[in-house]
Write a structure and sequence with these properties.
Helix content is 43%, strand content 14%. It is α+β, with helices and mostly antiparallel strands. It folds into two domains: 8-44; 46-109, no CATH class. The N and C termini lie far apart (61 Å).
């Protein structure tokens, strides 16, 4: 048998919705489905689960980290803070064996990723009488 505490607000919402959907055995049915879903996702892609867990922990801790550790480096892996330091060298080797980890400088936004299509087409216009073409030949460049 497993016993655990769930925050009161979440527990109340869960109990109400589970009972509405499944009746008297609602909580047990909903928890069983949740565990089965988690297990199927864990089998499919453990990295995806680790990434989601670490990102959730980072988002939850972000206000506290920004208030107390702005400008310092933090490493989050396995759903926990693995270390915090003003020096990147002190944290860069923490949790290297974790499937996913976050190494971030507190208070800095990560760089935006941009994606280029990687090709461009130039169209050659037909010259007017006696005029040279206005652009290069119509060939895709990669």
């Amino acid at each position: 048998m497993m016993t655990m505490e769930i925050p009161a607000q979440l527990r109340d919402r869960f109990e109400k919705q589970a009972k509405e959907l499944y009746g008297d055995q609602g909580e047990a049915t909903a928890l069983t489905q949740a565990v089965e879903l988690w297990l199927s996702e864990a089998r499919e892609d453990p990295l995806k689960l680790a990434r989601a867990l670490n990102n959730r922990v980072f988002d939850e801790l972000k206000p506290e980290l920004e208030a107390t550790h702005r400008g310092e480096w933090v490493v989050i892996a396995r759903g926990k803070v693995q270390g915090i330091s003003p020096n990147f060298g002190d944290v860069k080797n923490l949790a290297l064996d974790a499937g996913h980890r976050i190494v971030a400088r507190v208070g800095e936004e990560p760089p935006r990723r941009t994606k280029r299509l990687g090709w461009r087409i130039q169209i050659q216009r037909k010259p007017s009488a006696g005029m040279p073409p206005t652009s290069s030949p119509s060939t895709p460049t990669f």
